[in-house]
Design goal:
Its main location: membrane. It comes from Actinomadura barringtoniae. Keywords: Cell membrane, Membrane, Transmembrane, Transmembrane helix, Transport. InterPro entries: MFS (IPR011701), MFS_dom (IPR020846), MFS_trans_sf (IPR036259), Sugar_transporter_CS (IPR005829). This protein has 444 residues and is mostly helical. The longest helix is centred in the first third of the chain and has 32 residues.
Length: 444
C-alpha cells in the first residue's frame, strides 16, 4: 500500500489538476509532499515504533494511513489533497519500521526469514510498477479519487490481519525519544529530499534547489555530532558503522538510484516515444514484477549460507546490466527486444538486493531493529530522490546538446547517456559494497 502510493498518483495528476483547478507548480507537490514526509520521518518512526510497541504501531499506522487516504479521495481543494498526502507520508513513516521489526522478530530462523523477507521484497519492489498500472486503470475507468480510496479496503484487511496474527510484544525497555536528534534528522532529510525534487524543474543552481541541499547536509552533519553524545540516540551510530549493515544501506541507496531512474525514463519512453496509453504503459511494466519474483526466489534460498558480500553485490550488477541495455535503446526500438529485457533485469536485481539488504540490516539488531529497518527505507528514499533528479538533469542536458532529426531521438539519446552513467555508478557501488562488508563477516 505504501509502495504503490509513491507512484499511483503520477498517472492521475493531469486529471487531478483539472478537477481541483491546480496550478503547475502545485501539481508537483502532490508527489513531492508524500516523499518528503515519508523519507524525513522514517528514523523517528522507527524509535516511536520501539516506544509504542510493534503491534500498536502497525494499527495506528494503518488507521492513520486509511484516514489520510479518505481525506485525499474526498478533497475539494488543492490544500485538502496536499494535507492528505503529507499525512500519508507521516503514517507511512510509522508503519514501515514496524513492519520490518515485526518480520525480523517473527521469523528468526534463516529459512523462514528468507521466505518472509522474500515476500516483503516482492511487495515493495513491484509496488512502483503496479502503482503506475493501477493509477492508469483507476483514472481511465473510474475516477482519480479511487487512487486514494483504494487504500481503505487494503488497510482494513491488513489491520484485521495484524489483530489476528501479530502478538502483543513488550515495549523495548529504556527507549526515550531523542527530540534534538529527531528534529535534526527530520529537517536534514527533508532538506535533501526537497532539494532533489526541485533540481529537475528549477535546475541545480537555483536557490530553491541549492540552499535546501546545502542546509540538509549541514543539519545532518550536526545530527551525527549530536548522536555521538546523546544518551539515547535516535540513530545509534553502531547501527550504521557495522560493516554488514553499512553495506546493506549503500546497496539499497544504489539500487534506488538505478531502479527509480529506469522507471522514470521508461515511463516517458513508453508514453511519449512509443505512444502507449497510460493503461498499456502500466501493463508493459508488469515484467518488472516477474523479474522481482525471480530475484527474490533466488536470493531467498541463499540467505542461510552465502556470505554477505555475495548476497549484496550480484543484485547491483544485475541492475547495472539492465541500465546498460537501456543505454542502447533507440527511438525506433521495439518493446519485446529492447524494453522487456531491461525491465526483467532491473526487477531481478532489485528483488535480489532488497531482500538481502532488509534481512541483513535487521539481523541481530536487538533493540535497534526498528531503527535499522528504518535506515533501509531512508536509504531507498534518498537514493530514489537523488537518482531521479540527477539522472533527469543529465538526460535533459545531453538531449539539449544533441542535434537529431526529431525531439524523440534527442530525448532518447539523453536517456541513453544517463542510463549508461547510472550503470557505471552501480558497478562502482557493487565493488564498494563488496569491499565494505568484508569476507570475514559471517552469513546470516
Amino acid at each position: 500500500m505504501i509502495g504503490i502510493d509513491l507512484t499511483i498518483v503520477n498517472i492521475a495528476l493531469p486529471s487531478v489538476q483539472r478537477t481541483l483547478h491546480m496550478s503547475d507548480p502545485t501539481r508537483q507537490w502532490v508527489v513531492t509532499l508524500f516523499a518528503l514526509c515519508y523519507g524525513g520521518l522514517l528514523l523517528l518512526g522507527g524509535r516511536l515504533s520501539d516506544l509504542a510497541g510493534r503491534r500498536r504501531s502497525l494499527l495506528i499506522g494503518l488507521t492513520g494511513f486509511a484516514m489520510a487516504s479518505a481525506l485525499g479521495g474526498a478533497a475539494t481543494s488543492p490544500a485538502m489533497l496536499l494535507a492528505s498526502r503529507g499525512l500519508q507520508g507521516v503514517f507511512g513513516a510509522l508503519l514501515t519500521p514496524a513492519v520490518l521489526a515485526t518480520l525480523a522478530a517473527s521469523f528468526p530462523l534463516p529459512a523462514e526469514r528468507g521466505k518472509a523477507f522474500g515476500i516483503y521484497g516482492t511487495a515493495m519492489g513491484s509496488a512502483s510498477g503496479l502503482g503506475v498500472l493501477l493509477g492508469g486503470v483507476l483514472t481511465d475507468y473510474l475516477d482519480w479519487r479511487w487512487c486514494m480510496f483504494v487504500n481503505l479496503p487494503v488497510a482494513a484487511l491488513a489491520a484485521a490481519g495484524v489483530l489476528y496474527a501479530v502478538r502483543p510484544a513488550p515495549r523495548v525497555e529504556g527507549v526515550r525519544i531523542d527530540w534534538a536528534g529527531a528534529v535534526l534528522a527530520t529537517a536534514g532529510l527533508m532538506g535533501l529530499v526537497f532539494g532533489f525534487a526541485r533540481a529537475e524543474p528549477d535546475g541545480w543552481g537555483a536557490p530553491v534547489t541549492f540552499l535546501p541541499l546545502v542546509g540538509g547536509v549541514l543539519v545532518l552533519t550536526a545530527f551525527v555530532l549530536v548522536q555521538r553524545k546523546a544518551g539515547s540516540p535516535l540513530l545509534p551510530l553502531r547501527v550504521v558503522l557495522n560493516r554488514r549493515r553499512g553495506g546493506s544501506y549503500l546497496a539499497v541507496f544504489s539500487l534506488a538510484v538505478g531502479m527509480f531512474a529506469a522507471l522514470f525514463f521508461l515511463t516517458f519512453y513508453l508514453q511519449n516515444v512509443l505512444h502507449y496509453s497510460p493503461v498499456r504503459a502500466g501493463v508493459a511494466f508488469l515484467p518488472i514484477t516477474a523479474g522481482l519474483m525471480l530475484g527474490v526466489r533466488a536470493v531467498s534460498r541463499l540467505l542461510a549460507r552465502a556470505s554477505v558480500r555475495l548476497l549484496l553485490a550480484p543484485g547491483l550488477l544485475t541492475i547495472a546490466a539492465g541500465l546498460g541495455l537501456l543505454g542502447t535503446v533507440r527511438a525506433d526500438s521495439g518493446y519485446w527486444l529492447h524494453v522487456l529485457p531491461v525491465l526483467a533485469l532491473v526487477g531481478a536485481g532489485a528483488g535480489w538486493s532488497l531482500v538481502a539488504a532488509n534481512s541483513i540490516a535487521t539481523l541481530g539488531a536487538g533493540p535497534d531493529t526498528a531503527v535499522a529497518g528504518a535506515m533501509v527505507m531512508t536509504s531507498q528514499q534518498i537514493g530514489a530522490s537523488l537518482g531521479t533528479a540527477l539522472l533527469s538533469t543529465i538526460a535533459g542536458t545531453a538531449a539539449a546538446h544533441h542535434h537529431a532529426a526529431t525531439r524523440a531521438e534527442s530525448a532518447v539519446y539523453g536517456f541513453n547517456v544517463a542510463s549508461l552513467g547510472a550503470a557505471a555508478f552501480l558497478c562502482l557501488a557493487a565493488a564498494a559494497v563488496f569491499l565494505i562488508t568484508g569476507k570475514k563477516d559471517p552469513a546470516p
